[in-house]
Every structure is written in structure tokens, then in C-alpha cells.
């Protein structure tokens, strides 16, 4: 499946971010390299890594050995907040480890201190203006923290990557982000979910898929980016096999309601 065949979120600059990506936290060393290569072989075209994950070299090696064209893979990496004042050298180290000239999305991994927030955001914007990254965003930011960035620089983050899943569903937060032109990217879809929940198992049964696949499809049907991680070959492929079914409005409502039960 080509990047252009997959459902995507549109980011500034006409950048297309596949709604289904591959998480790589705790996927390190040979195991990480093999997982990313398997993901790319399966059809994932969006990889999520971070300076803090210590696996950018393995991710980069898998990208190179996949035989895919660089422009057909969307790569995110993240800046640790303690690198204030060293933003550019941190991104250059990421690019070197990944073996690429540019990433597709660079996120501030967590909010730095209030005093450092705007200076760090300005450095991130500068890296984008120098084409070291195509788009920029944040992770683990509240709406108020995003508003501060927008008020100070008139530049909104393209993405906010936050902990998300059916049990954490928050319609208002999704709306607040959308109103500010910020794409919601969810992380830890399985760790935040009880996969034996009766609502999920019922809906999974109706579509002849697993509860994990329902969770991923629920994100996609909400147009929320989701980045499941796995180092297990069967799970890597099952987690990508979510494009042959979709959830109806009633199923979506039932899953949304899990957050309030
Ligand atoms: N920005 C942030 O602060 C932040 C924080 C956390 C995560 N993230 C990103 O989000 C990604 C995903 O989050 P996550 O790694 O925390 O958690 P996750 O994707 O919710 O869960 C990963 C765990 O679920 C297991 N798993 C995978 N597929 C499964 C399936 N089909 N059925 C049952 N279990 C399954 C994995 O096991 P195996 O690997 O053993 O198969 C692993 O133990 C991370 O890898 C990272 O890229 C970002």
C-alpha cells in the first residue's frame, strides 16, 4: 500500500501524515530494527521515534534497507525538553542517526518549563524554516500551553501527540485542537485500553476482527492519528490490517462512551 493510498491527515505545506503509524518506544537494538523493517514490509509508511528512545539509528537502517523511497515514508522524531539551547544540534544528531536530510515532523516531546517554552518553540520553527523538518509540533501539551505558543509566535503546532484511547476519549479536547488547526495524534492506544471490554469484544465479533483492531479503526474513523507499537510479527501485520472494515455511527458512539463508564 502506497502512502497516497492510505488515509492521511493534512498538515501545513500540503504534507500528508498517514493516520496509522508505527510506534517504536522500547523497540531497540536488533529487535527494533527488525520490527521497523517488518512494519515497512507490511505497508506502514509512518514511523514514530524520538531522541529519547535511543533507536533512531536502527529506525534509519530499516528505512534504508526497506528499499522504499525516502519520500514515501513519513518520519517523526522528538526533541527532549531538557535540550533547550541545544535544539538544532539535537535535530542534527537525529538526522545523522536516521540517515536522512530532513524529518517530516519534529515534536517537542514534553513541555519545557514555562520560561523556556517560547524560546524552544522559536528554535523548532527556525529548524523548519531551514528545511531540517517539514512540519513541527508538540507532545503532551495542554490546550492552554498551545495557546501560549500561538499567541507568542502566531504559529500553531501542526500536531499534538498525547495519550489517547477509547477509555480517555475527550470530545472537547479533540474539538479544541481541531479549532486551532492542530491534528490530534494519540499514543499508547493499547496500554490505555482494556482489550477485554465487552463493548469492544462485541463490536470486534461483529466485524470478525480483534478488539485491538477495533481500537485502531476507532481512531482512524475519528481522523485521529494512531501509532501502535509492536515487536511481534503477527501483531505488526494485524495492527495494519484495519482498512477492510469501518465502524458505523452507533458503534463509534458506544466506544466513545467507554470514557464515561
Ligand atoms: N509522546 C510521548 O510522550 C509518547 C509516550 C508513549 C508512547 N509514545 C509513542 O506511541 C507509541 C505507542 O505507544 P506505546 O508503545 O506506549 O503503547 P501501545 O502501542 O499502546 O502498546 C504497546 C504494547 O502493546 C502490545 N501490543 C501490540 N499490538 C498488540 C495487539 N494487537 N494486541 C495486544 N497487544 C498488543 C505490545 O507488545 P509487543 O511489542 O510485545 O508485541 C506492547 O507491549 C510508542 O511506541 C511511541 O512511539 C509517545
The major beta sheet can be summarized as: 8 strands, parallel
Order of helices and strands: EEEHEHEHEHEHEHEHHEHH
Q: State the distance separating the first and last CA atoms.
A: 37 Å
Q: What's the arrangement of strands in the largest beta sheet?
A: 3-4-5-6-7-8-9-10
Number of helices: 10
Class by SSE composition:
alpha/beta
The percentage of residues in β strands lies in 15-25%
Mean pLDDT: 97
Bound molecules: NADP nicotinamide-adenine-dinucleotide phosphate
**Helix fraction by DSSP (H/I, runs of at least 4):** 40-55%
**Computed CA radius of gyration, to the nearest angstrom:** 18 Å
Give structural notes.
The chain has 261 residues and is an alpha/beta fold. 42% of the residues lie in helices and 17% in strands. It is built from ten helices and ten strands. Strands 3-4-5-6-7-8-9-10 form an eight-stranded parallel beta sheet. The protein has a two-stranded antiparallel ribbon with strand order 1-2. β7, α5 and β8 form a beta-alpha-beta unit. α1 packs parallel to α9. The model has no long low-confidence stretch (mean pLDDT 97). NADP nicotinamide-adenine-dinucleotide phosphate binds next to α9.
Amino acid at each position: 500500500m502506497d502512502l497516497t493510498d492510505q488515509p492521511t491527515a493534512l498538515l501545513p505545506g500540503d504534507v500528508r501524515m498517514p493516520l496509522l503509524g508505527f510506534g517504536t518506544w522500547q523497540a531497540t537494538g536488533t529487535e527494533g530494527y527488525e520490527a521497523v523493517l517488518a512494519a515497512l514490509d507490511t505497508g506502514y509508511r509512518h514511523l514514530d521515534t524520538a531522541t529519547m528512545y535511543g533507536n533512531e539509528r536502527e529506525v534509519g537502517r530499516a528505512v534504508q534497507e526497506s528499499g522504499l523511497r525516502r519520500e514515501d515514508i513519513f518520519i517523526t522524531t522528538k526533541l527532549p525538553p531538557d535540550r533547550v539551547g541545544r535544539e538544532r544540534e539535537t535535530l542534527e544528531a537525529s538526522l545523522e542517526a536516521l540517515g536522512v536530510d530532513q524529518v517530516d515532523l519534529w515534536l517537542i516531546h514534553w513541555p519545557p518549563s514555562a520560561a523556556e517554552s517560547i524560546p524552544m518553540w522559536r528554535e523548532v520553527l527556525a529548524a523548519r524554516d531551514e528545511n531540517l523538518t517539514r512540519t513541527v509540533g508538540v507532545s503532551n501539551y495542554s490546550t492552554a500551553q498551545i495557546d501560549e505558543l500561538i499567541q507568542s509566535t502566531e504559529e500553531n503546532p501542526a500536531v499534538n501527540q498525547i495519550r489517547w484511547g477509547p477509555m480517555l476519549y475527550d470530545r472537547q479536547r479533540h474539538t479544541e485542537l481541531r479549532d486551532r488547526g492542530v491534528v490530534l495524534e494519540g499514543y499508547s492506544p493499547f496500554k490505555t485500553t482494556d482489550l477485554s471490554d465487552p463493548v469492544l469484544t462485541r463490536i470486534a465479533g461483529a466485524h470478525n476482527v480483534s478488539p485491538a483492531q477495533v481500537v485502531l479503526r476507532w481512531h482512524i474513523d475519528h481522523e485521529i492519528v494512531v501509532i501502535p507499537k509492536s515487536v511481534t510479527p503477527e501483531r505488526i501485520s494485524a495492527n495494519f490490517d484495519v482498512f477492510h472494515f469501518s465502524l458505523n455511527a452507533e458503534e463509534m458512539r458506544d466506544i466513545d462512551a467507554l470514557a464515561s463508564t
